[in-house]
Amino acid sequence: MKFDKIKSLFHKLQQKPVIACAVLAILLTFILEILGRRSLLEAIQYFVGSPMMFFYNALIIMLTLSLALLFKRRYFILSLISIIWLGFGIANFVLLGFRTTPFSAIDLTLIPYALSIIDVYLSKAEIITLTVILVLVLIGIIIIAIRAPKHKEKIHYLRSIIVVATLSALVVLFSVIGSQTQILESRFGNLAAAYENYGFAYCLSNSFIDTGIKKPQTYSEETMNGIINDLNQDDGAEDAATPNIIFIQLESFFDINYLKNVQFSENPLPNFTKLKEEYPSGFLNVPSVGAGTANTEFEVITGMSLDYFGAGEYPYKTILLEETCESLPYNLKERGYNAFAIHNNRASFYGRNEVFCSLGFDTFISKEYMQDLEYTGASWAKDECLIDEILKSLNSTENQDFVYTITVEGHGKYSSKVLDGTETLEFTMPDNYDQEAYAAFFKLQQDVDQFIGDLIDALEQVDEETVLVMYGDHLPSLEIQASDLENGNVYQTEYVIWNNMDLKAERKDLSTYQLSAYVMDLLEFHNGVLTKFHQQEQDSMSYLKNLELLEYDMLYGKKYIYDGENPYEATTLQMGIDPITISEILYFEGTETVYIKGEGFTEASRVYINDERESTSQLDNNTLMISNYNLQEGDVITVKQSGKNRIPLSSTDPFVFDGTTQDSIIQGILPTEETATEEVTLQNLEIES
């Protein structure tokens, strides 16, 4: 009997497609809120407490569903649109398990990077399960496409267009009224809070539409000239000291002594604590929590605030692919500096290999160019390797250098794999905390603190004036609340400025977009419009309003402050300090084994023969091996730095094989069992195709 009633209801909805779309939209909205809030109860509370916002979100979804009315295959289109919405909701649910930032449109551009690190966060069984689910969903879509009935009656296109147009008008009308009455916000200072207040469908839709910086109402040539004319145009003394300047962005690092409910047996961060007491330091307001490394990086390097960009936007994936941007590297190069970027992760992560040339860097040393790396249990490169890379950068030029370094060791996932049987810090915390995750995180923080101490010890041996700026990019994704912290703010890390120049300053709290200008002010450097602006106008009533105008003019406007023309040309980014080279090819015809001798080989080196990628094994830093290959005279061999993602970053010059073959191993030319390390032996066994 109940089945008959359901069948009857379904039949009635078929006869009234607009009502069917409305019912389906409400159902989808409720499911999406359950997924986004990770709680049925909170979704019900949102429905009861904010009914207007709930139905506005349903209206947005209904608008997308109404497009099905324009097709004969309306049941398939309805199903497909519903599956897409549910897919976004499930993606949001999964992401919120690893970070505090909800799913937004920009995440779709990060899918390749997410896939490259999926094994860090998910077990093999979970990856297989996810793959099976995706395959089943795809099969389901195909079945629906084949089996779903076509609409039998004639489509009333005019009526359907009127429905879509009416729904569009209602969405626009509500958006305008909501914005004017401040019921709705289109700019989200806190993305997580926005999703909670305004709903998933609205915030996600807004992230697709709202990118870049909107033209401010007061934007004009006269306004921009007024801002520039108010600035003192002095760039600073030409004979001012020019120390090496090193910035270190520390992954997920903050002073864990601020955790109110955790007691440690000893100070877990002795080096960082001592530095804060002796050198300029303060809290640093960062743009995100649990993720968003590249956005903290962007604000520090450019001096621009992300508050004026689209919701959840990464400028690295949008405007910086098209425009160069005033930055710390460009400004320092006016004073004769060389600009290096160093990162012990893949160069292509967040597209850094593409955008660093738009920020003025000359050289980028990424993981692909680092030798003998060690890894955490979570498969991230340890930070100790960065010390040699920083020193190598400083020693590679005669001029003073700017070195921007991004660490990765402190990255999650925080699990027992990180501990790896090592001695851990003793601590106590409430039972409702994830003890294992925190233990792993604390261990990584200790390691980073040791890295800080070792780096300073190394820099003290360099006979040059040096300024080292260190700061955390964001808090970790451990569901830390403001009430858990002594400072009461999850959007705060800290910075410290070690130096051997006796730079003095009182403790001062800053935002990330102010940090570079502050450091430059301590050095009496004033190069760059934004540098001058932050140094001179922070106390002005129009500071933030004018900052927005400057950012718009620089990136999206008519560049009035530069007399109408962008003065910054993209650099030719050199990957790695020293080029990789091939010096000799040894071919053993009997075993069809090819040995490539050269310089600068790493675990990311891949051999190409006649432009075809071959399975490559690294024997040591000077030797690569190809097995089971019949090498012929005239074959062209190159070695490219690419790694697993197969994005080539640089290449050796082509080496043409002259046909010479070897009969036996030449003593001293190839690694032997005695000289090969255990790590190299393992690499030989794990040949990657």
How many separate helices? 23
Unreliable spans are 673-689
Strand order of the largest sheet: 10-3-9-8-1-6-4-5-11
Number of distinct beta strands: 20
- The overall pLDDT, averaged over residues, is 86
Structural class: alpha/beta
Shape: globular
Question: DSSP strand (E) fraction?
Answer: 5-15%
Structure overview:
- This protein is α/β, with parallel strands linked by helices.
- It is 40% helix and 13% strand.
- It has a nine-stranded mixed sheet with strand order 10-3-9-8-1-6-4-5-11, sandwiched between helices. Strands 14, 15, 18, 19 and 20 form a five-stranded antiparallel sheet that branches.
- A hairpin with an 8-residue loop joins strand 18 and strand 19 (650-651).
- The longest helix has 25 residues, at 435-459.
- It is globular.
- 39% of the residues are buried.
Would you kindly provide a brief summary of this structure?
The protein is 40% helix and 13% strand. Helix 16 links the parallel strand 4 and strand 5 (363-366).
Layout of strands and helices, then pairs:
Elements: H1 2-15, H2 17-37, H3 40-49, H4 51-66, H5 74-95, H6 111-116, H7 118-121, H8 124-147, H9 157-180, H10 191-198, H11 200-209, H12 221-229, E1 244-250, E2 263-264, H13 270-278, E3 281-285, H14 293-302, H15 328-333, E4 338-343, H16 352-355, E5 363-366, H17 385-395, E6 401-406, H18 416-419, E7 427-428, H19 435-459, E8 466-472, E9 492-499, E10 510-511, H20 512-522, H21 529-537, H22 543-555, E11 574-575, E12 581-588, E13 593-599, E14 605-609, E15 612-613, E16 617-620, E17 623-626, E18 636-641, E19 650-651, E20 655-656, H23 678-685
Parallel strand pairs: 1-6, 1-8, 3-10, 4-5, 4-6, 5-11
Antiparallel strand pairs: 2-7, 3-9, 8-9, 12-13, 13-17, 14-15, 14-18, 16-17, 18-19, 18-20
